[in-house]
Amino acid sequence: AHGLPPADPDREARQIDRLRSLAAEARLAPEFAEKFLNFIVAEVLRHHEAITRPE
């Protein structure tokens, strides 16, 4: 939407690093934080593709 690419791997990598650090500081599993973000990104991409798919 709005001419932007559906994915931004560089930004996603920065967000993963940030969330892993926050999780570690909170004594949570960094792996869980990464998996959770990956799930959210995958869902957003899936919805974006569904919205932009011609009918």
End-to-end C-alpha gap: 16 Å
Query: Any idea what the radius of gyration is?
Result: 14 Å
Strand content: under 5%
Helical content (DSSP H or I, runs of 4+): over 70%
Would you tell me which CATH topology applies? Chorismate Mutase Domain, subunit A
Could you name the ranges where pLDDT drops below 50 across 5 or more consecutive residues?
none
> In the CATH hierarchy, what is the superfamily?
Chorismate mutase
Q: Multimeric state of these chains?
A: single chain
Total count of domains: 1
CATH architecture: Up-down Bundle
CATH class: Mainly Alpha
Total helical elements: 2
How does the helix and strand content classify structurally?
Answer: mainly alpha
Order of helices and strands: HH
Topology (SSEs and partners):
Blueprint: H1 9-25, H2 30-52
Helix pairs in contact: 1-2
Summarize the structure.
By secondary structure, the chain is mostly helical. It has helices at about 10-25, 30-50. The chain has a single domain, classed as Up-down Bundle (Chorismate Mutase Domain, subunit A), CATH 1.20.59.
Describe this structure in words.
The chain is an all-alpha fold. The chain has a single domain (9-52), classed as Chorismate mutase (Chorismate Mutase Domain, subunit A, Up-down Bundle), CATH 1.20.59.10. 73% of the residues lie in helices and 0% in strands. The protein has two helices and no strands. It has helices spanning 9-25, 30-52. Helix 1 (9-25) packs antiparallel against helix 2. The chain is elongated and about 45 Å long. The model has no long low-confidence stretch (mean pLDDT 88).
